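Render DUF2721 domain-containing protein in 3D.
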Amino acid sequence: MPTSAPAPDDIAHIIQVALAPAFLLTALATLLNVFSTRLGRVADKVDLAAIGLRSAGPEEARRLSAQLTFLRRRSFVLDAAVLLASAGGIMTVIAVLTLFVGVLREATTTSVLFTCFGIALVCTAGAIAAFIGEIVLAGHGIRDEVDRQQDHAVAKQTR
C-alpha cells in the first residue's frame, strides 16, 4: 500500500492510458453487433430452408439440405468470431482494471497489463479473421444460389 496518495499528474496519465482500451472495447462492441446481426440472418435462412423442406421434392430437398449444411458452417464461424471478440473484451477490461490496481502495487502490474492487452489484441484479430471467413462463406453461398437460379432460368427457356 502506498504511503501517500498518487499525484494528480499520475492519475491523469493513468486515465489517458486507459482511453486506448476504451476505444478497443467500443470497436469490439460494434463487431459483436455486426456478428449478431449476421447470425440473425443465418437463422432466418435456416427457418426458410426448414419450412421449404416440408413440401420439397427430392431435388429441392437435396438443395435445401446442402443449404442447411452451408448455413451450419457459417453459424460455427460466427460463433468463433463472437467468442474471440468477447474474450478480447474481457482481456481488455482486465487490462484496464490492472492499470488502476497497479497504482497500488507496481511489481506485477506491467507484465499483467501487457499480457491482458496483448491477449485482447490477438482475440480481436482472431474475431476479425473469423468474420472474414464468414463473409467469404456468405459470398460463396450467394454465388451458388445465383448460379442455381441461372441454371433454372436456362432450363425453363429450353423447354
